[in-house]
Amino acid sequence: MEYPKKSLGQNFLIDHNIKRKIINTTKLFNKNVLEIGPGKGFLTNEILKRKPKSLTLIEKDNILANRLISKYKKNKLIKIFNSDILKFNIEKNIKKNTIIFGNLPYNISSQILVKFIKFNKWPPKYSDLVLMFQKEMAERIIGKFNSNNYGRMSILCNYRLHMVKKFNVSPNCFLPKPKVDSTVIQLQPKNEMIKIKNIENLEKITNIIFSNKRKMINKSIKKIFKRKEKLKKIKNLDLKKRPSDISPNVYYELTELYESF
Q1: CA–CA separation, 150 vs 247, rounded Å?
Q2: Who's near 60: CB < 8 A, 6+ residues apart?
Q3: What CATH number belongs to 6-189?
């Protein structure tokens, strides 16, 4: 079967310099490492050179997974799962202080990231996420309040993760060449947060309010809070503002208030 497969969003990284830059974002010696979508093992080989304590590979493609199993069958440090990352119970199978790498398929990259944000136990067992996204998506993830890229995704990510943009990656670094630039982001779990009981409630509230992102939030917020007097508990909340004019902390406070009833 021909590779790469468009159906799986496969764009294989082929640039050795970028490969080393990704690996150099954090120290891997004697660490537990997990790689999402290792493909042909291009990044995997570089990880192994750094002598990790363990290496877990999750590859959806049946043929590539079998090739990886055959290639690394003598290496006892490696565990390979032929599985879809969106269906895989990563929280259950991950080891403590795991470093996670992933050149993510553009079409499901946000879903994968949200999966890591919505871990039930927090802080999670992973210590670092080093993930590659389409540049446009990356900008939305790290979007600061009062910037054009600020929105639902950045609010959700900022609640649980520290985020640092590392570098952009040219389409020339892949086979086949994507039509857009990519960006590598390093994300690390926050330990101290506002006490939201269920992260899915924050997701729900931002979904509702941003559903009419160009209009004032006063109508959208009625779908969440039937009685507006409850909202008096939230300082700096102006119902005449648009969703993008509301700071992340206000969204977190709204979620706390929602959970209190």
Answers
A1: 10
A2: 8, 37, 82, 83, 84, 85
A3: 3.40.50.150
What confidence tens digit (pLDDT) does each residue in 213-250 have?
A: 899 999 999 999 988 788 988 988 999 999 999 999 99
Domain boundaries, the chain: 6-189, 199-259
Distances (CA, A) of 227 to 92, 223, 261: 40, 10, 12
Contact 68, 81 (CB under 8 A): no
Where are the strands (E) in the chain, listed by range?
A: 12-13, 32-36, 54-58, 78-81, 98-103, 126-134, 161-169, 174-175, 182-189
pLDDT tens digits, residue range 177-211?
999 999 999 999 998 777 899 999 999 999 999 99
pTM > 0.85: yes or no: yes
Q: How far apart (Å, rounded) are the C-alpha atoms in residues 6 and 193?
A: 39
Q: Look up residue 31 and give its two tokens.
A: 């660490």
- Spatial CA neighbour of 165 closest among 195, 213, 133, 200: 133
199-259: CATH number = 1.10.8.100
